[in-house]
Amino acid sequence: MISLVKELWRTLLFLFSIQFWRMGLLWTFSIVFSHHQLIKDFFCSQRPKSYYRCSPCVVPVRPVAVVTGATSGLGFYTAYELSKEGYVVVLVGRSQQLLLEAERKIKAWNRNAHLKAFQVDLSSVESIILFRKSLQQWLSDSDLHSSIQLLINCAGILATSPRTTADGYDQMIGTNYIGAFVLTNLLLPLLESSNVSSRIVNVTSFTHRNVTDMQVDDRTVSGKRFLSYMQYPYANIYEYSKYPGVVQTNILREVPSLLSLSAHFVLKYLGLLQSPEYGVSSIIDAALAPPGTSGAYFFGGIGRTIEPSILSRDAGLALKLWETTSNLLSTTPFGTEED
């Protein structure tokens, strides 16, 4: 009875918060707008650019794909689909138990799957560095080429209360953005040493359209500025730092169950909620797009792309963000690794 009262009270607090209504209204508008783009482009004389899939060459050596967030949702189904394409899939996740369960399930569905699991905390710079070293050692000890062909940054969280990483960053930004930044930079040499075309796929979100202006400085990029707010702006931070989309995953696990179930019901009723099995199609489209494809925003499956927000295409802002993040990380073990 006490737990029920606590859950109802927590639900009411969420229901009357600005952040909840930002999610409910602006996020719904963003997904509707994205689908509107698909429909509009379909009926326009100039069709949107679509890409066909190119299956990887698996001889003489199988290609290697690294997938973060591979224990559930989109990350799990991405790993499964890539295993069917012939990739050796490196599963990256925080929980050893969930990694074992994901590995077992994928092998049950695809008996020919080639998998390797690594336990990594993507909110920790030190953990990512240790992973890079372990991955290099594993590649050296295997009969694979000492390189990787595909990196898919899929991991993400939606934290509804403030908390910090071991490095002192906001945990949501640390996991969703900084972790992906560090991992990508550390794995670049392995991607660049591939003897075939290699690629990085960043799983982003339609919610990025709600970001109309962005302050780029150390306190914002690290998330420390948000930790001092009276009400933690979790919806805004999620939009800044990316992630998945209206796909039925456990990304809303910190939202009261009554509200998350209601949101899933409404979106499913409106035809806007996809299952992970279907939602993963755009990720696989991006992963298997023809060599040379770069900078495209895949959305809606069957190789289709749409235009992202104007702000996301601001090259000057992107450069400033890159430099600020690099400077921020220069005092961490990542700075030493870069040197």
Model description:
With 339 residues, the chain is of the alpha/beta class. The protein is built from 14 helices and five strands. The protein has one domain: Rossmann fold (3-Layer(aba) Sandwich). The protein has a five-stranded parallel beta sheet, with helices on both faces. α6 packs parallel to α9. The radius of gyration is 20 Å and the shape is globular. Keywords: Membrane, Oxidoreductase, Transmembrane, Transmembrane helix. GO terms for molecular function: oxidoreductase activity. It comes from Arachis duranensis (Wild peanut).
The CATH topology turns out to be: Rossmann fold
**Low-pLDDT runs:** 244-249
* Overall pLDDT score: 86
H/E series: HHEHEHEHEHEHHHHHHHH
CATH architecture, by name, is: 3-Layer(aba) Sandwich
Radius of gyration from CA coordinates? 20 Å
Number of domains: 1
Overall 3D geometry? globular
CATH top level class name? Alpha Beta
Number of discrete helical segments: 14
The helicity comes to: 40-55%
Largest sheet descriptor:
5 strands, parallel
Distance between the termini: 57 Å
Full CATH superfamily name: NAD(P)-binding Rossmann-like Domain
Number of strands: 5
Structural class: alpha/beta
How are the strands ordered across the major sheet? 3-2-1-4-5
* Share of residues in strands: 5-15%
Question: Can you give me a brief rundown of this structure?
Answer:
The protein is α/β, with parallel strands linked by helices and 339 residues long. It has helices at 2-15, 18-43, 73-84, 96-109, 125-141, 171-192, 218-221, 224-227, 234-241, 257-269, 276-279, 281-287, 315-329, 333-338, and strands at 64-68, 88-93, 114-119, 150-153, 199-202.
